[in-house]
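Protocol step 4 of 6: structure prediction from sequence.
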Amino acid sequence: MRQSEVRRIVEKMVSPVARSVRMMMTRCTIALSDASREIQSVQVKGLKGEVLGGAQYPQHYGFRSVPLPGASGFIGALFGSRNQSFLLGTTDARFNPKGLKPGEVCIFDNRGQLVYLRETGIEIISPLAVTVTTPLLTVDAAQARFTGDIQLDGNLHADQSIVADEEVSVGDISLTGHHHTNVENGPGTSGGPVA
């Protein structure tokens, strides 16, 4: 048997395996996402316009994201079979936060909402409202600082003193600038405050 014949036979035998290996992994672009199922599925566009529908997108426990159309990722195929494809991961350069230092983490979306786990502490940025719903919220901190107004829709109870650097008012009555009626000298009790 000639060397050229051996080469042809080996290529013929190896060709299907080589093709399967090439088909096991490719870059892709997300076209559609379906998060209504227990395991999310996606439709992706592969190389040279190949469209793969129903690819599973398994994610880490406790975390779920729905990639936007145009996000990029890597698609894998069991044994090179595109009918058994799965999305390995996604990224979306349009919204990736910049300037993270080694070891830092950021959860983000396309609306500018970010939760940073920075080397200096946790930072939350949101152009939208932030709501915490729980039966009891405990903040265990030596100090808490609010830079804007605070509105309480319930009662305020303080176990320690309340200190105010500015005026305090209750309804229309000023703590520092109100007057009393029926004021008398001595140990008597004056009348109530006048607004």
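Step 5 (inspection) to follow. The longest strand covers residues 25-34.
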